[in-house]
Amino acid sequence: MNLNWPSWQTLRSIALTVALGAAGGLVFTAMGLPAAWMSGAMVAVAAAALGRLPVALPDPLRDALFVVLGLSMGAGVTPEVVERVSDWPWTMAALLLVVALVTGATFIFLRYAVRWDPEAAYFGAIPGALSFVMALAAERQVDLARIAASQSTRLLILVVVLPLFITSTASNPPHGLERDVLPTLLQMVILFALCIGASFVAVRVGVPGGWMTGAFFMSSALNASGVIPVALPEFVLIPCYIGLGCFIGSRFSSTSLTVFLRIIKASMGAVAVGLCVSTVIALVVSTVLGLPFGQLLLAYAPGGLEVMTLLAFMMDLDPAFVAAHQLVRYIGMVLLLPFATRLFLGSR
Q1: Please, are residues 266 and 114 in contact by the beta-carbon 8 Å criterion?
Q2: Taking the CA atoms of the chain, what radius of gyration do you get in angstroms?
Q3: Residues 179-213: tens digit of each pLDDT
Q4: 88-142: per-residue pLDDT in tens?
Q5: 9-23, 48-62, 98-112, 118-132: which has the minimum mean pLDDT?
Q6: Pairing with 345, which of 86, 97, 104, 189 sits 20 to 30 Å away (CA)?
Q7: Is residue 200 classed exposed, middle or buried when 0-12, 13-18 and 19+ CB atoms within 10 A define those classes?
């Protein structure tokens, strides 16, 4: 049997990419920035790519990364969060409106004001779920540089600027989050085996983003049912965050600095459109239902479950409320995006 081993040039490119990503993540971590490992790796590798350094991650490594990320995301689907979803029907309904209006308004802006092509405008307009959006876009061989810039700019604002603003204006000191119960070694082996198997099945039957989607739903089912606690240790998660940042940053290899600056300018406008829609709906719902505006803004913001929940703790808001809404938004997008993408953009 002939094995196609990667060339030394490919191995050097991978080593350079990972080294730059780790260094960037380390610098951002030392600066105390949120989501530092991923955002630092993304910035460092993107800068190297724009400088025409040979940075790249091969597809098999990317797919393995998506499996682990999908598995880790199931940690947010806890029995407590699932039980409390039915407590907030009106705010959940407004959440659906937020996702639809933010996506539609941002798509119109990118498609007609900035003149992006339909596929790039569609993926660039989707609020949040960066890893899943990138997985879907990678399968369709879309211009990932534009999508990465649009999604990453949104992520940068929400993960860096918004948390710093909210925590600086909070009157109460931050609280700490309790550590998740880690699975045993045997449970970890079973968890990985089941999630890898689910990813293979999802890819085999043609589910878009199957490597991440299959692992996510398997880990979510195991965690929500209490069969196996889903929580990965930091020494597993940190390399995955670095890898995701490297994957996003390496997508800029075919982009010139001039084009990149134009993309960032367009993306800033798209973020402004999306945040305006989210803020208006959060204000309306807050006025009608008498709920704290900050709590609703965190629940509706297209950011990560962990970061938004942490902010809720810091501001003495209801973290279960924020976590449940962020979770429903993500699960809804994972469920509907593959079919909506196929309906809106057609088959690959």
Answers
A1: yes
A2: 20
A3: 456 788 898 899 999 999 999 998 888 765 678 77
A4: 889 999 999 998 999 899 999 999 998 888 888 888 888 877 667 877 777 777 7
A5: 118-132
A6: 97
A7: middle
Q: What is the DSSP letter of 62?
A: H
Q: What is the pLDDT of residue 175?
A: 45
Q: What's the half-sphere exposure (Cβ side, CA atoms, 13 Å) at 114?
A: 28
Nearest to 189 by CA among 232, 220, 226: 232
Which run of H or E residues covers position 109? none
Q: Is the dihedral of CA 46, 50, 56, 59 positive or negative?
A: positive
- Rounded distance, CA 92 to CA 90, Å? 5
Q: Say how far apart CA 120 and CA 267 lie, in whole Å.
A: 12
Q: What pLDDT was estimated at residue 303?
A: 67
Count CB neighbours of 75 within 10 A: 18
Helix/strand/coil percent split, the chain, to 5: 75, 0, 25
**Structure tokens, 212:** 């991440």
Q: How far apart are CA 193 and CA 121, in angstroms?
A: 36
Taking only the tens place, the pLDDT of each residue in 252-299 is: 777 777 777 777 788 888 888 888 898 899 899 989 988 888 788 888
At 173 the pLDDT is 44
Which tokens sit at 302?
């297209």
CA atoms of 303 and 37, how far apart (whole Å):
16
How far is 68 from 306, CA to CA, in rounded Å? 17
d(CA 335, CA 72): 17
Q: Tell whether pTM > 0.90.
A: no
Residue among 328, 314, 321 nearest 286 (CA) = 321
| 271, amino acid identity | V
